[in-house]
Amino acid sequence: METQAPAEDSYDKLVEEKRAREKEIDAWLPITSSRNAKWWYSAFHNVTAMVGAGVLSLPYAMAQLGWGPGVVILILSWIITLYTLWQMVEMHEMVPGKRFDRYHELGQHAFGEKLGLYIVVPQQLIVEVGVCIVYMVTGGKSLKKFHDLVCKDCKSIKLTYFIMIFASVHFVLSHLPNFNSISGVSLAAAVMSLSYSTIAWSASAAKGVKENVEYGYKAKSTAGTVFNFFSALGEVAFAYAGHNVVLEIQATIPSTPEKPSKGPMWKGVVVAYIVVALCYFPVALVGYWMFGNSVEDNILETLEKPAWLIATANMFVVIHVIGSYQIYAMPVFDMMETVLVKKMNFRPSWYLRFVVRNFYVAATMFVGMTFPFFGGLLAFFGGFAFAPTTYFLPCVIWLAIYKPRRYSLSWWTNWICIVFGVCLMVLSPIGGLRTIIIQAKDYKFYS
Questions:
Q1: What three-state secondary structure class fits 442?
Q2: pLDDT tens digits, residue range 367-399?
Q3: Are the CB atoms for 48 and 320 separated by under 8 Å?
Q4: Domain 35-441 belongs to what topology?
Q5: Residue ranges covered by each domain of the chain
Q6: Of 211, 235, 362, 447, which residue is the least packed, with the fewest Cβ within 10 Å?
């Protein structure tokens, strides 16, 4: 009997060491490292994640959807995504004593270890990497717009170079270790998004309704109208896509059994959603009302004068996109670092982080420079990955875990969201693909 005790001791020691090491790694990883965020952090992180530069294309989406369907889809999306966001916030701590700090951890809890990863991670990565690439292009384009507006006689500089200039900021900022350390950047970004949305709709309103304005569909053929409609669905879906980073943001809020993190988080989300409504609805409705179907896919392009105001708005877009890029890149950094440290047993160190993050920024920059017609790719990816992670994955997880009674209110609500989300997922890539084909026909690399 006596021989067994030391073996057990050494086993306990191993378990202790493993636990200590996991704790140490968690304290190093970007998402779990600091848990002292205030509720208003969650508000502006959510605003930054939610209000993309996509808000500027909302009038264009409205023009493709028409008044009736447009208003209905805008409001429906707002309600559904708020509901699925509430589900995510609730599910963050539904197992007592455990927190789902990342989207895929929740997926694993619902669908099992392996399947959960396979369902959530590819979608989350497509969304986050996709957003980062799009923002590279958006940032570059807005810088170019600013340059062209401020200095009309200057030599024209290629978009490629502007994307490089924009990326240079991220080579520095991406080394901020975690969510709380980028809260300053994020606050600036959230304020900016409100500012340029306000500029966009108030400048439109100041111009007044255009003479002989038309609200009909622009496409000549029926097929064109239908495809544009699908594509606009994707644009709207893309506008409400903050869910991929919700759990990661909530992970930074402190939590005790008496005061769970969902209280402050939900408060932040509600504030964020009010701000989102203040950004989205006026821009979409006023922009479409003033310009009708002649509005361009970026409303700042339709408003050329006053030049100084539009230049300012473009600069605001740049600052906001800087913040958004960081928020979407953080979970990717977390995944990459987790794999390297936990699976490949690298030591957590600053130079591992330095290499990983610089590599990621360089990669997104390169793709952005190569394919700047990423807007069409957006409706395409938006349908594939945004619709699921935002509109129906939370509902599916909710049904899988809570198993509400059949035909009860909760059951119906979730199924309606799932059906709506699946329709979005199927329809918007079709429209997006057509846009890509049309744009890619006359495209030259690195022009």
A1: coil
A2: 888 877 666 666 676 677 777 888 888 899 999
A3: yes
A4: Amino acid/polyamine transporter I (1.20.1740)
A5: 35-441
A6: 211
